[in-house]
Amino acid sequence: MNARWWIRVLFGLTAVSTPSCVGEVQVPDATSQALLAPPRTGFENVADAMQPSCGTLDCHGQVGRNMRLFGARGLRLSATDTSAEGVTQPPEYDADYWAIIALEPETMATVVREKGDSPERLTLIRKGRGTERHKGGKLMSPNDNLDRCMVGWVAGRIEVDACQAAAMITAPSGFVP
Amino acid sequence: MLSMSKLALLILSLPLSCGAADFLRDPLVSQEIAKLGPEDPNVPRGPLHRAGQPCGACHNPEGIATSFTVAGTVYRDPKAKVPVADVVVLLIDAEGTKFTANTNCVGNFYVKPNEFSMRPPMWTSVQMGDVPFKMESPFHREVSCAVCHFDPDGPDTAGHLFVADDPTTFASIPLRPCGPADGVKR
Fold first, then answer.
1. What are the tens digits of pLDDT across the range A108-143?
2. pTM for the complete prediction?
3. Contact assignment for B148 to A58 by CB distance below 8 Å
4. Which of B132, B122, B149 is nearest to A169 (CA)?
């Protein structure tokens, strides 16, 4: 009865006891609706729209944020990139996507399942609209470009025009001295 | 004779007036202030001190010094940290309201809330000569330029603020020594 024998016994006991536990654990599978999320395809438009309003270095472009956003003029994912140059990279879009959908997975799943109905159930939308305390203030109003972009995304349809307009947020006239 | 409420106020104010209120402060803010390190003994507290450091660590509405809306230090070029005086810092907010501030001889500038209270997002440029150098992205809430602009540039910073990136241009930018006016508080 050496050590290898005991390991075999332990593995055997584990294998025998496992089936009795499986029935008590809800494992998401292909048919489960528990983790529904808005589409990753086309999300680049949404991330680009959020970047200048939400993802700057002084807001969610910081490692201390739960909703941590990466982007070319904000926080970079690669240690060799800088905030001063380059374009947003695919892994940064991936990281943004996961950061957002993981904020409130159950609520997000419900909103997605209900085709974007009552999106204000999401803290993401309430904070952006300024209807819930948000240190960054009110960044969008219902039906403006950024709002349409984000709400459209959770409803399963990406309004590319609205997203692109939100991404091009510009200074008021008079910025040129 | 003091009423009980006045006596309580007096007692509560004692530790504050003695500067022993650290225990009341957000520990993260305390850490931020501690990271600044000691003052340079050769530079008096005021507009010339702590150039390049995040001003908002102390100069914020809940801070231990006069509150600023925005403050920072501007250097001549992206490589060397050569401070530049008399740079015009233009700020414009979401409503199109503009404000300009000028850097002093150590490159510092600051804006107080009673001078300009901004509605975010804000845009900014620095200008020395004919051509403004504009920041590409807006900012929203940070008092200190140095929170996002520090060296070396990397994944969480664009590097220090500078007024020109063309060697010919920045070589022509005049530098001047500090004068008595530079250290005067507004």
1. 999 999 999 999 999 999 999 999 999 988 999 999
2. 0.81
3. yes
4. B122
Q: Is A16 a member of any domain?
A: no
Give the number of domains in chain A.
1
At A56, the pLDDT band (50, 70, 90 cuts) reads very high
* Type and span of the H or E element at B125: strand B123-127
Please give the residue range of the domain that contains residue A52: 41-167
Give strand pairing partners of B92.
B98, B123
Query: Is B129 in CB contact (< 8 Å) with chain A?
Result: no
Which of A70, A85, A175 should be substituted to probe chain B, the one whose Cβ sees the most B Cβ atoms within 10 Å?
A175
Q: Does A45 lie at the interface with B, CB-CB under 8 angstroms?
A: no
**Cβ atoms within 10 Å of A63's Cβ, excluding its own:** 8
B 64-123 residues inside an 8 A Cβ radius of A: 88, 90, 92-96, 98, 120-121, 123
Q: For residue A144, is it within any domain?
A: yes
For residue A67, is it within any domain?
Answer: yes
Range list of H helices, chain B: 4-17, 27-35, 167-171
Question: Does a structural domain hold residue A3?
Answer: no
Scanning B106-183, the segments in alpha helix (DSSP H) are 167-171
What is the least distance, in Å, from the CA of B70 to any CA of chain A?
Answer: 12
Residue A8: its pLDDT value, please?
A: 59
Res. A26: pLDDT tops 60: no
- pLDDT confidence of B184, banded at 50, 70, 90? confident
Q: Is the pLDDT of residue A11 over 60?
A: no
